[in-house]
Each structure stands twice: as C-alpha cells, then as structure tokens.
Amino acid sequence: MQTAQRILRGYRRRRLIVCIALAVLALLLTLSARYVAERNINEQRVLAFNQRVIGTLENILIPLEQANKDIVPLVGIPCQAAQLKMSEYAARLQTVRSIGLIKDDILYCSSIFGSRAVPVNLLQPRLPSALPLLFLTIDHSLLKGSPILLSWIPSANSSHDGVMQIINIELLTGLILEPERPWVSRAVLNVADSHLEYGKGLLQQISVEAGMVSHQIASERFAFSVMTIGPSPGALALSNLPTQLPLALILSMLIGYITWLATANRMSFSWEINVGLASREFEVFCQPLVSARNLQCVGVELLLRWNNPRQGWISPDVFIPLAEQQNLIAPLTRFVLEETVSYLDIFPKSRDFHIGLNVAASHFHEGEIIADLRRSWFPAHAPQKLTLELTERDALPDVDHRVVRDLQSMGVELAIDDFGTGQSSLAYLETLNPNVLKIDKSFTAAIGTDAVNSTVTDIIIALAQRLGIDLVAEGVETPQQADYLRSHGVNVLQGYLYARPMPLSEFPRWLRGNNMPPPRHNGHPIPVIPLR
Ligand code: C2E
Ligand code: CA
Ligand code: CA
C-alpha cells in the first residue's frame, strides 16, 4: 500500500540522487578541466623552454656567420696582418673564445696566441674538412678539457684551408640550459652526434630514465637541436590535482545546492500533479447513489483517479491529502468540475439527480469555490443538483458559513462527508446547516456487530432525522447493511453492493442495466428522492 510518506520520501530520494550525481559530475568535470588545462600549461612550458634555448643559440650563431664571411678571406695572409682583425672580431662577439686560420692543414694564426704552427688535426681530428662543420668537442689548446662548440668554414679554394671559431659553449649552456623544474629536469644540447648536458658536460649518449619523457626541437637555421627531459606533462598535472581539490569541492557542492534549490519545484509531488493534470493522467470516476426504497440511481459521487505513468495507480487517499498540503487541491477540483460539465449529458436530466463533488475546506476560502463554479458549473445550466461534499476530517470550523449560505442560495447543496469520524462538533451542524450527512463506511461496516460504532450509527441516524438532514450511507457492501439502513430510515445508499466507482464514460451503460421501471403505488411512481 502506497503511503504519502513513501511517495514523498521517494521524491526526496530522487532529488537527492540527482543533486549528488550533478555534484559528482561537476567535481569530475572541474578536475578534468583543471587536469587538461594544467597538462597544456606544462606542455607549453617545455615548448617555451626549448624555443628559448634554440632562439638564444641562434642569436649567438648568426653574427658568427657574418664573421666567417669576413675572416675567410684572411686565410693565407700573414698572421701579423690578420691577427688584429681576428682579435677585434673575437672581442666583439664575446661568445667566441678564439679564432684560428688554417692553411695547408696547419693552424698558423690564432686570435689569442698569434703565430702558431700546429697541424690542425692534432687539435681537432675532424679538421680540416671540405664541408662547413659545427660540432661539440673538447678544447685542447686554451682551457684544456673544457667543452667547446667549434665552427669550421673551409675556404673556397682548398679543403686544407679554412677558419675555425671556438665558442665558449660551457659558459653559455650554464646560462641557457639550466633546468626549469618541475617541467624540465634535464636539458641537453645536441650537435651532430655529441650531446652537452647541463651539469654533466659532453656525452656520447643520452638515456631517458623510466617515467620521464623527452622533448626535442631542432633549429631550422643551424645543425643543432635541444632536448629536454622531464616528467610527462600529464603525470605532472595529475600530481598537482590534489591542490585543485578544495576549489573543485566547493564548486561541486555549490552546484549540488543550486540543483537542490532548482529541483524544489520540478522534482516534487506538486510538479508531478501539475504534469499529471497537463498530460491528462487524471480521470474522473463516479459511484452511483441509489434510493434505499427502489434501488433507482438518485445521484453519483465524483471520485478522482490518478494513473501516474511513473508510480502506477495512486489512490486518492494518498494524493488528495498531499495535494491539500501543497495547495493543489483547487486545480484538481476544477479539473473534476470541468470533466463533469463536459459529461453532463450522461446523467439523468432531473433536478432530483445529485452530483456529489468532493471539495476541500480550503477551497471555501474567500469564496474561491464560488468563483470556480461561476466559471464552469453555472454557465453549463446543469439540470442536476450539485452537492458539495466536505469531509469532516477537514478543518470544518474554518469554513466560512457565509460562503455556504451563498452556495445554498444558488441551489448548491452541502454534504458533510465521513460524518462521525472527525472531531465531531455539533456546533457546526448549526452554523453550516448542511443538507446531507454522509455516514462514514466504518459505521456502515459496524452494522450487525456489537461494536461501539454500531451504536454510534444509530445515534447519527437519530440526530440527522431530528435535525431534518438527509442521510446517505457510504460503504454498503451487504444486503443486511442495506436492510438495516433502510429500516432505520436512511434513504440513500452508496457502496460496492450496488456499484463500484466507474469511469464517467461507463456510467450510461451501468444506468441502463440498473434502470428497472420505478415502483408504483396506486398507479403513481414512488419518488426516488426522499421527501422531507
Ligand atoms: P470519500 O469521499 O469518502 O469517498 C468514498 C470512498 O469510499 C471512495 O474511495 C470509494 O471508492 C470508497 N467506497 C465506495 N463504496 C465502498 C464500499 O462499499 N466499500 C469500501 N470499502 N469502500 C467504498 P476513493 O475513491 O478511494 O476515495 C477516497 C477518498 O479520496 C474519498 O473518500 C475522498 O475523500 C477523496 N477524494 C476522491 N476524489 C476526490 C476529489 O475529487 N476531490 C477531493 N477533495 N477528494 C477526493
Ligand atoms: Ca465523498
Ligand atoms: Ca466518505
């Protein structure tokens, strides 16, 4: 059995699940976004490092090209005549440690030592060469053993002649190859097949440790490249992720909270009722009321049914109290009214035929019910009599008796429903002056038993008769109950014994089956509605 609490708990649980799911999604998205952004930043840092090194080295080598052009013509000129120009160049270029002129394989002039006569291949085995060369090697003349970058330009006439420039690369790399942690842990300058690593000097081979990645960029202008080794940008971003966690958590909690607020309407029972109304999930049923004397149908009670596609059939005992709590009872009553008006033709066109509409006490507030009846019931000019059923469990004392009076003056009757089950106060029988009392089904069920309720049934019947109020007994299920009620002067009966609630569209068929010719007395039909 569905209970209101279970349904409400279900909504709250679903709402909570949606909020938590969105919060977790927000957390994951924030962290992923941060991860991707950090990884890109890390990649950019490595790229920028490599480009900076390339750029700096290119800027050093470009003036050397010009110097080579100016100095190559000096090859062959006596050292005294050439040395001054060479040392001027070396001084201007700053990065150049020394310049040497080679003629017939002999280094015959140095910008530092002046005239010399050393076979160049003793100092540098790769020289002389017919092709221009740029390579890393070890200094064998000035700062012996220190790494140098050597540029060789052969002269146009002979491969045995040329100019060599020695660049003080150790000092330079100390400045430009300094690692930039945590992105770059090692930086290496590659020239031809040799490598100069920051802090390690010249190496023949570079190995990359496990877990590290290398990144290499080559100069487009000169024959060298720069390689950096460091943690992978992704791994670095991942290790940095915990620092992003507090902010991401705050954001996700905020999103969860906003979702909670935003779903207050959408994921609630009231939202569901509104959707149900809009998508016609509600249906109006009716249950016949029969005359105790001749079993003729003297009216119907309109009962709402809800076929909720998500929850299945929901009993009105569940959704009516919830709708009342959420101030949605009036729209539901309006729906019942409008449906009934559109089906008016199915009911016997007689003023003696009662159409019972269940109305909540709150709907009487400020005459709201009158406004609704003016909108749909009165314009239909229904020949039948409308009876508003007010349940006694509602806040009856709050019902404005002037509204009831106005309704009665418009021909609308008032019935007190479930009479005897609430905080029965006889005072409002006087103030509200109801036309009908509906004996609750619990009292009908007590008939024939020796329960206290069976005594109460007798008292209610006697009370109504004393006050001249019509009686309708609900929940008549057995012929014994019907006999008892009939013999005690209850003139209208309602219950499964006669008919269960049915869709409005089925009522005409039921009515045809039920309509036996009315009993006659001395040739006159016996009235089906009790006469007062
Ligand atoms: P109620 O006004 O007392 O309606 C009579 C209830 O008794 C109906 O239950 C009906 O199906 C049931 N009933 C009829 N004959 C028998 C019988 O012989 N035995 C038993 N055991 N039950 C019988 P239902 O349709 O489930 O409605 C429950 C309650 O929901 C209604 O009680 C009424 O208070 C409320 N309700 C239903 N429709 C509306 C509506 O349109 N507006 C408002 N405000 N309340 C409604
Ligand atoms: Ca009722
Ligand atoms: Ca009732």
TrEMBL record:
* Gene3D superfamilies with a match to the protein in the record: EAL domain
**What Pfam families does this protein map onto?**
CSS-motif (PF12792), EAL (PF00563)
Kindly indicate whether the keyword Hydrolase belongs to this entry.
yes
**What reaction does this catalyse?**
3',3'-c-di-GMP + H2O = 5'-phosphoguanylyl(3'->5')guanosine + H(+)
The record, for SUPFAM superfamilies, names: EAL domain-like
The reply to whether Isomerase figures as a keyword in the UniProt entry is no
Give the source's domain of life in one word: Bacteria
Its membrane topology is listed as:
Multi-pass membrane protein
Principal subcellular localisation of the protein: membrane
Q: Where in the cell is it found?
A: Cell membrane
**Per its UniProt entry, what is the enzyme's top EC class, as one word?**
hydrolase
Q: Which residues form the EAL domain?
A: 266-515
The entry's keywords: c-di-GMP, Cell membrane, Hydrolase, Membrane, Transmembrane, Transmembrane helix
Task: List membrane-spanning regions.
Answer: none
What are its E.C. numbers?
Answer: 3.1.4.52
Name of this protein = cyclic-guanylate-specific phosphodiesterase
Q: What organism is the protein native to?
A: Buttiauxella gaviniae
Q: What is the lineage of its organism?
A: Bacteria, Pseudomonadati, Pseudomonadota, Gammaproteobacteria, Enterobacterales
